[in-house]
Amino acid sequence: MSDDNTPADSKLTSSKRRWAAEGKFLTGRIARPETERLPPGQHLVKNWPVLDLGQQPAISMESWRLDVGGLVETPLSLSWADFQAIEQSTKVSDIHCVTTWSRYDNRWKGVSTRDLLDLAMPKPQAGYVMLTSYDGYTTNLPLADFAAEDAILVTSWEGLPLTPDHGGPMRLVVPHLYFWKSAKWLRRIELIPDDEAGFWEKNGYHMYGDPWREQRYSDD
Ligand SMILES: Nc1nc2c(c(=O)[nH]1)N[C@H]1C(S)=C(S)[C@@H](COP(=O)(O)O)O[C@H]1N2
Ligand SMILES: [Mo]
Question: Domain 65-212's class?
């Protein structure tokens, strides 16, 4: 297979082959067409609004704990030092609040949910997670969505410690679902067999909450 005049031997083709080998121009961003980046019914904001039930708990690092329980091989009860000792990850993602604001390109640092699940080891019967926070808030989502590649247990935003109003010292961020699924001041992750409704899900909001399908409210 050595015909000197095949297009495969042109200068451009060989540079393109080299680019492919080097991964040139790869941004590492998820390929969603630009026109679909903003979900239907959403508008962009530059600031970052604060939304919660109005009870912002003050949590000291000394007393902070994160429990992982339910359908796991190894239940965890982590101190702040234990949590910091887990591999730290950085992710950049957009957030979409059901009240119609979206904010692009948030830089998060913390523990990827996959790295935490690797320690707890979900049992095969685990299909969903119920999250419970220090303010009594709860929310539910499928385990597969909690374990999404870009889901992260955040302790830092834009290079600074996550502030208490946004859920510091630690909150969840699951960028592909409406932001009410991203529990602030997370205290406990319970792996459960079947879906159960959390706080907003019992109050008229959707059990799943996909922004691109506008799953804002429950159907009934
Ligand atoms: N613990 C807790 N987490 C929560 C909430 C809450 O009231 N308590 N509100 C949810 C809602 S409705 C939204 S839109 C986001 C808002 O996060 P922010 O205040 O950092 O913008 O947090 C979510 N996580
Ligand atoms: Mo919200």
Answer: alpha beta
Instruction: Give this prediction's pTM.
Output: 0.86
- Our mutation pick for probing the ligand 1 site, out of 95, 174, 184, 217, counting the most ligand atoms within 8 A of Cβ, is 184
Tokens for 61?
């690092």
Domain ranges (residues) in the chain: 65-212
Q: How much distance in Å is there from the Cα of 181 to the middle of ligand 2? A: 8
Ligand 1: residues with CB < 6 A are 48-53, 97, 133, 135, 137, 166-167, 179-180, 182-185
pLDDT digits (tens, 9 = 90+) for 168-186: 999 999 999 999 999 999 9
Residue with tokens 């590492």: 28
Read off the pLDDT band of 30 (50, 70, 90).
low
Residues in the chain: 220
Give the neighbor-by-neighbor strand order of the sheet with 128-133. Answer: 76-78, 66-70, 186-192, 128-133, 138-142
- Please give the full DSSP string across 158-203, using - where no structure is assigned: TTEEPPGGGTTT-EEE-TTS-GGGS-SSEEEEEEESS----TTGGG
Give the ligand whose atoms come closest to the C-alpha of residue 198.
1
Pocket test for ligand 1, best of 42, 45, 51, 96 (most atoms within 8 A of CB): 51
